[in-house]
């Protein structure tokens, strides 16, 4: 257990996740990862003068099991002498359910953080989660940004367990004789993530690389470092050049061209959820075109127009437009 706590502290301080006297919201589902995360923070609470609060979301999608999770989390709060904030949202639609639940959860956590004036929101993602996320996005198709996976710190969200294997967390729970809840749906192979967890990863480790999870984790870390460099370069260009010059854009490496165009699109539209690689390639075509006439693209409520060396992006009145090029 001492080695676990030592690694937890070392990872936290190396990644600058939290500091002495930090005020931390611990997101607790009741599962093994969040049960471990909560216990570790409570072990360190006195030494580092931490102020902690528990947050739990009961989506009520699993009937008695959801109610049991909430009851268990409240017992944990009582055990550790902590306050617990509970959200019971009404789920109106199951369309795009996973993303919607995530949005609800993080909006709730940020609301608590803002209203309570807390510093950080701690969630229990681990190294196995990172490996599964990497493979899931690779299978579905993702660029560098997607394959970077989860970061130790993303804004106010911190992931102190991201460097720990799931088996290490299980061993900690066993040594500490800690109870936790089990989500039965994690065993169902109808979900892609579960098939990756129970079928693909074990097969790759057995037949190709016994440390494949750690390999994927390090790959995601390396990609994250490379992505951060590209992002910093594109941000510098964006801040210095408020107009899109064809000559300047085409003088840059293609990776930077795309990142800069994305920044201008976000600046105008306010979001990038529906922008795909194919869309960026179409936009780049008007930068590369040698036609003398003015050219424009209508894309999701935006008008992208080239006149000579200058490309402008403006918002149209219609909220949604088909992707078309003239």
Structure description:
This protein has 326 residues and is of the alpha/beta class. It folds into 2 domains: 2-215, Rossmann fold; 242-325, Uridine Diphospho-n-acetylenolpyruvylglucosamine Reductase, domain 3 (2-Layer Sandwich), CATH 3.30.465. Helices cover 53% and strands 13% of the residues. It has 12 helices and 11 strands. The chain has helices at residues 2-14, 32-48, 64-80, 97-116, 127-140, 144-147, 166-176, 192-207, 212-240, 246-250, 254-269, 277-288, and strands at 23-27, 51-57, 84-87, 120-122, 153-154, 157-158, 244-245, 295-299, 302-307, 310-315, 324-325. Strands 3-2-1-4-6-5 form a 6-stranded mixed beta sheet, with helices on both faces. A 5-stranded antiparallel beta sheet has the order 7-10-9-8-11. Strand 8 and strand 9 (302-307) form a beta hairpin. Helix 2 (32-48) crosses helix 7. It is elongated, with a radius of gyration of 23 Å. The relative contact order is 0.10. The model is unreliable at 318-322 (pLDDT under 50).
Low-confidence stretches: 318-322
**Would you identify the CATH H-level superfamily of the largest domain?**
HUPs
CATH topology category name of the largest domain: Rossmann fold
> Radius of gyration over alpha carbons?
23 Å
Total DSSP helices: 12
Q: How helix-rich are the residues, as a percent range?
A: 40-55%
CATH architecture term of the largest domain:
3-Layer(aba) Sandwich
Largest sheet: 6 strands, mixed
| Straight-line N-to-C gap | 65 Å
- The number of E-state strands comes to 11
Mean pLDDT: 91
Strand order of the largest sheet: 3-2-1-4-6-5
Question: Can you tell me the CATH class of the largest domain?
Answer: Alpha Beta
Tally of domains: 2
